User: What shape does this take?
Amino acid sequence: MKKIIPYIISGLFLFSSVNLFAQNIEFKASNFKDQKVGFKTAVESLKAGNEQFEAALEAIENKTDPKETFSNALINFEEAQSFNPNNADLNYKMGKCIFESGDKTEAIPYLNKAIKLNAEINSDAYFTLGKALTLEHKFEDARKNIKLYKTKLKEKDYLKKKSEINKQLLEIEAATRMIYSPRKRIWVDNLKKINSEYADYCAAITADEYMMIFNSERRDDGNSSDIYVSYRDKSTWSAPIGLGDPLNTDGEDVCLALSPDGQQIFVLKEENDKENIYLSFLEGDTWSEPEKLAENKINTEFNESHASFSYDGIKVYFVTDNPFANKGGDDIFFSGRIVTSHYEAWGKAHTIGSEINTIYDEGAIFMHPDGQTLYFSSKGHNSMGGYDIFKSTRLSGRWSDPENMGYPINTPYDEKYFVMSANGKHAYVTSNRKKEGMGGFDIYKVTFLGPEKAPVIDNEDHLLASFAKPIQEVSFAGAVEVESNHLTILKGRVLDAFTKNPVKADIEIVNNVRNEVIATFQSNSKTGKFLVSLPAGINYGIAVKAPEYLFHSENFNLPETSDYQLVDIDIYLKNVCIGCKIVLRNIFFATGKYTLRPESTTELIRLVDLIKDIEKVKPGIKIEISGHTDNVGSEAMNQKLSENRAKAVVNYLTGKGISSQKLVYKGYGSTDPVASNSTAKGRQQNRRTEFKILEN
Assistant: This one.
């Protein structure tokens, strides 16, 4: 398990100005003639520390985690240090141990002292000191030490280290440029109500920013991770609570991602020292036992260490060290669902692309609900040091060149996990930065603001054929630093129209132009809650269906340039009863005509299936299809138009095998409005086709 445990270094040596100018004192008996017992104990500690130090260096070569071994070596070195604080090699090794296992900047005084005691100390002291100084934003001193390291290497050693040295210098250059460039109006705040003195990391949120899950090592044993949840009330997050069984166990429990609607979660589990991705569903208020994702398609004999949902649930993006098509280290891959009439499975995984993956590690990925933007962490590209967060958008057939999110989101420390709210106003990043941290890795809230502007109220735009009202959010007029997301979030509850009890329903998302289902979701069985993400650029038909109910339909025609909106709606499903009726919001006609447009096909097929299902239990069913118009034009013209439109729907139904004896059509013209005809939106709601049960 790749763990991010903060190692607490205790008893760090305090340096005085006198010590800094002391001479190097070797661990020789002749230097401690009057301290034989103490010398013997110190040498034993030094020997044990050296053995562990060499083992830790070997672990680095083998690409295994050396932190615990360095930490154990440090304990022995501290014993020797208490006896002889002025040995250059010991100070170097202590600095190296601290840098690799604890608070990296606390290595600086040890490394400085080692160099002052002996300028010809192991050259790695200069390199490690340069990296530690970078974290303190002492970039000129850092650059100087890296260059000194370069000059002290033999040619063959330099050739081996050339790439690493150049990368470190480029990171210092990138950090200098980003930190000291004009500050953007971006605020990064420690979520103190969420974080603890232990590692807290990998926050994941629902698209509406209502629910957050994350990992924490605050458990009593202080070692293993558990999964926690918090809920947002306005701008405040609730105190975290553990998710409990079956997600939290006695072992290491790690969440990776939350689906946009909060109904699914990816978790990480270890088998035979290999990491795999599992999926759990929220069934009512209980999470299901996690199930392993497809073998040999997503999970392999290698490590799969992170994952993200796509907005429509059709793809999964994941991080793996599988060498197949891998550019180096951990790379990002994706797999798509294969659905046939007989089965559903995951397809063969493919690399996300050379624009994203590098020869260095990619750490985590988050696919935004807009379906076009991905955020990921990487040690490559133009990183400031460690993992940085990058952004890329989907172009025609490729991803755009990644853009570093810059300071203060990124620092020379590790920023490994990142998620963005659907509206683009907030993000959450995991970082082990020292200045604001509470302990190891912490979760930070990122707030994006533009120039100072007077607050305005968002417009209610793009919602078609619905009585729901978009939520009005206070925003800032004019330009903002973060791009506007062309996205609609539809959320709410599915309820029984009579009892008002929650209903578990299937929610079908259709591309009306293509007449194809592009995604399916379910409302929660206990709460009736649902959330779907609708990226702009599609005419959406939405159908909500449940056994023994009439379906409910909505239509969203979202142009490419439509702005972000959050629409909250309660959907009431009606039973099959005399007088019950539904509006068929995805039946379309050309303006002033009664020919059915092709975009109506999916809704009409759905209507045929509904009537046939009702006939099975209620063979005496009789149905009225009615047409309605707004009040534009003469009443006679509207009456005739509405009647012909209703007739066109009936003709389609009879053509699909529905008996004409069960159907009647009627035009109501503009006599039965459901909204005011004084607005364009009201007139649009009044132009509709309805289905009503007359007899059953």
